[in-house]
Each structure stands twice: as C-alpha cells, then as structure tokens.
Design a protein that fits this description.
Protein name: PH domain-containing protein
Number of helices: 5
Strand content: 15-25%
Shape: elongated
Radius of gyration: 22 Å
Keywords: Membrane, Transmembrane, Transmembrane helix
Largest sheet: 6 strands, antiparallel
Organism: Nocardioides pinisoli
Transmembrane segments: 16-34, 40-62, 92-112, 118-140
Oligomer: single chain
Length: 237
C-alpha cells in the first residue's frame, strides 16, 4: 500500500513482482466486472481493480522525490527560512490511494444498502470516512508534508496535521543527527504542539525535542545546527 511518508527503496525484482501482482489483480477485477449480474457484485469485483491500482501506485511512489530546496518566505508576518520536508510525491500518490479505497467503501455501503440491507453502510461507513478524510483534509490545507520555518524568534515545524513550535530563547541544546537536528527545550518549557487535523488523521508527537529535517539545507545537519545555535544566542542578547 502507498504510504503517506517517504517510501523505502525497492529492488528491481520486488518492483517487477509487484507490477505483475498488480496487473493480475486488475485483470481479475475487470473479468469479474464483465460477468457481474448485479450492482453489488460489480462493486465487490471492483475491489480487485482498486487493490491492483494500489499496488501499481505503490511502485510508482517508490521513486525518490527531487531534493527539497530551502527558500526565504514570510511566515505569519515574520521573515523566515523554510526547509521543506521530502516525500511530497509519495504523499500525493498516497492520497490518490486513500481516495480509491474510501470511494470503494462508500460505493459498497450505498449499493449494499440499496440492494440488500442496512448492514452494508454500517460496515462501510468507518473505513470510508477514515480513508476519505485524508484527501479532504489535504484539500483544506490541514494535512500536508510540511516542513520547518526558522524565524528570528522561533522554530515552527509542521507535518501531517501536527504543528510544533519552540521559541529560540527557550532552546537548551541543539544536537545534529544524520539527517535531522534535535532542539531540546529548557527544563521549565515544553515544545508546543497543535493539531491541525483531527486525532485519527494527525501525526503523533514523539519525544520531548523539536526535530528539524535538514534534508533541504545545503550544508546538512551539522551546518544547520551551528546556524540554529547562533540564532539561539542572538535571541538571548
């Protein structure tokens, strides 16, 4: 299934096998659709087509995004450096997959209610709402890959429905990792988290640090960490 995060690289053999499986599933679904004798049967057969498309889209999403590029922007009235997070193509394809799955569950619920009983919409409503919630929230700007904004007073990070913020004056330590920079707050302060999307669709905060993805910074995590330390020192003067 296509993930709403950066995909793991796949070997050529795995990609070929996945492509074969996806195309076979689509072929089976089309064959069953052509022989379906009712709308409910056709909707059930369409699941094979949907799952086949999911597999094929997963293979398409396995490619690497172009490297994100840091740029200067205005963030909530402040000049800021924006470090976009990688994985935008993977999220776009993931949203297409969620739309396909959510649309299938919604169709199954409606057709099942019209042809058989009320049990079908009861079974289908939760997965339909969950899957379709992703593209709806993305269209509203509440669910996106996001990135990190560095201003003269604060650091703001947003990813998949969760916004985290920490004032530079409240940063205790700045630690570079391989591809990220961890900002630990002073003991009396915690990172401020705000959900932009409802709980079922929102990313979860992990740990007490504010984590900045350094993939868009040309100098990498060590250079970015040094620049953040300098900004922290300047904010306390």
């Amino acid at each position: 299934m296509v993930q709403l995060s950066t995909p793991t690289p796949q070997t050529p053999g795995t990609r070929l096998l996945g492509l074969v499986v996806g195309l076979v599933a689509i072929a089976i679904g089309v064959s069953l659709l052509l022989r379906a004798e009712s709308a409910l049967g056709a909707t059930g057969a369409a699941l094979f087509v949907v799952l086949g498309l999911v597999v094929v889209l997963s293979l398409v999403g396995a490619g690497q995004d172009p490297a994100p590029v840091e740029r200067q922007v205005t963030w909530e009235g402040e000049p800021a450096r924006f470090l976009p997070r990688p994985g935008r193509r993977a999220q776009l394809l993931g949203l297409v997959v969620m739309t396909l799955l959510g649309g299938w569950f919604a169709a199954m619920g409606v057709v099942g209610a019209l042809e058989e009983s009320w049990v079908w919409p009861v079974l289908a409503v939760v997965p339909a709402v969950y899957f379709l919630g992703f593209p709806v929230l993305a269209a509203l700007g509440r669910f996106r890959v996001g990135g990190t904004w560095l201003t003269s007073t604060r650091v703001v990070d947003e990813q998949r429905g969760l916004r985290s913020e920490l004032a530079l004056a409240d940063v205790d330590t700045v630690t570079p990792r391989s591809t990220t920079v961890h900002l630990a707050p002073v003991d009396s302060v915690s990172v401020e988290h705000r959900r932009l999307a409802p709980w079922p669709w929102c990313a979860r905060s992990r740990g007490s640090d504010l984590v900045v993805d350094a993939g868009a910074h040309p100098g990498g995590s060590k250079v970015l960490a040094a620049e953040v330390r300098a900004a922290v020192a300047a904010s306390r003067r």
